[in-house]
Amino acid sequence: MKYYSEEETRELRQAFEEQVLNWTRVTKKKMFGCPCYKANEKLFAFLVTNGIVITKLQPSDREELANEHQTSYFQAGKKTVKNWLKLPIKNLEQLDAIMPFVKKSYEEALLE
To answer: What is the mean pLDDT of residues 69-79?
Structure first.
């Protein structure tokens, strides 16, 4: 199963990286065939085709994000990862709206 297409997601990736790669201790690595972003070697977000997966939110933040945006759980093959929220991103305005949650995930990763 292919999770990421650079052709379809290049603009989103570039806009996302303009922000997160400037944050302290952020590194980029390819995992699952996707560009993944870590803080202190802890995964806090990764891109999928036309979307993003946020991995380190507290339960209250996951609930708030799900109430404000369309979300689903990340599917890794047949396994559902319920702590990882997947959000479709159709335009860069949507990316701006979810960046505060990406920042919270990043901050949680720094604490681990």
So the answer is: 93
Question: DSSP per residue over 77-112, as a string?
Answer: TTEEEEEEEEEE--SHHHHHHHHHHHHHHHHHHHH-
In a domain, 90, yes or no: yes
Domain CATH for 76: 3.90.1150
Mean pLDDT over the full length of the chain: 96
Q: In terms of residue numbers, what domain contains 60?
A: 6-111
The proportion of the chain whose per-residue pLDDT surpasses 70, expressed as a percent, equals: 99
Burial class (CB in 10 A: 0-12, 13-18, 19+), 30: exposed
Is residue 14 included in any domain, yes or no? Answer: yes
Cα distances from 41 to residues 18, 60, 83, 109, in angstroms, run 19, 24, 18, 8
Encoding tokens for residue 79? 């396994």
Residue 1 within any structural domain of the chain: no
The number of distinct structural domains making up the chain is: 1
